[in-house]
Amino acid sequence: MDKKEELKNxxxxxxxxxxxxxxxxxxxxxxxxxxGSGFFEIPxxxxxxxxxxxxxxxxVFDLLQQPTPPNLVVEKLQIHPPSTLxxxxxxxxxxxxxxxxxMVNTSTQNSSSISSSSNExxxxxxxxxxxxxxxxxxxxxxxxxxxxDQEKNTTNKQLKPKKKNPKKQxxxxxxxxxxxxxxxxDDGYRWRKYGQKAVKNSPFPRSYHRCTSVAxxxxxxxxxxxxDPSIVITTYEGTHxxxxxxxxxxSIGILPESAGYGGLGGGDxxxxxxxxxxQPHYQQQQLQPYFHNQTSTSSSLSFSTTNSxxxxxxxxxxxxxxxxxxxxxxxxxxxxxxxxxxxxFQIRKDEPKKEQN
DNA sequence: CGCGTTTGACCAGCGC
DNA sequence: GCGCTGGTCAAACGCG
Length: 357
Hints:
two-stranded parallel ribbon; 16% strand; DNA-binding transcription factor activity; alpha+beta; globular; 10 strands; DNA-binding
């Protein structure tokens, strides 16, 4: 543990890395090979009911089929308008959107309405996203998905010949922030933690998780915002190559509210939160019960995407992948890809209209 | 015993 | 080239 502290301190003391600015962050959120992030302040329990339309690489608010739901307090939102793309027309609610110049490539400095917390959080996410997306955009086109396995195979570990494929491919990523005391949000999949690292500019370590499913190379990073410890930044990378587990960790999809999963942040200390979405159980409900009346705390959710493949419908990619594996209850569990890990379909509009091709 | 976590070390990429 | 950081590996360990 002492060493851990050391690492942290090192990271903190290290000023080699310039203070990350958004300027060179994710190039874009609107599809085209970019990413973005948003930050919503959402009443606790609302997440369970939240849903967005197919995230086809549009703006964050395009995720919201309808204007911001009544109980959804859009506190902060960051998006990354691509320098080369025109921002999509945004719904009325988007008036609350703050397009942060510094998040655009051209950026300078500014951003009035973005709080430091979300700023920082998104920053963390975007930082890496962008860093890679640049190089990945080129590389990824050459290779295909299997490389994760191949890496391991080719990694004949004698001592530590971790020579990986130079053209390491990065899968599309999807990041979001949640305001929660709990780090590891249970999205229904089973994850194995394979690493933890101290990150610079943050006193909180970042943990690395991998889907335990064989041949599924989906990874997940979890970290806390250095600025606002209550914010958990979760980044998914890759696409699940297997059906959505109906009984992950014992009880996905059949979690009664009484089971203590009613809302976010309700639990404490445990490694798993009630961050469960797309439960058939919820589908019965209407958009009414936003709240589960847990506590007065609120949960928040934000997005940051990196479309390394430069496809406008990057996230649709997820969705399609997931649809390839209709589950027994697929009729109920509309497949929304990783998004459904994050956003309960209740609020997503199930209309297939945005399923661009 | 199987599975998941912890942890120290290694590697690659990047900036200076 | 060097140092830093992020990402990953895998042995050791813990837990049920």
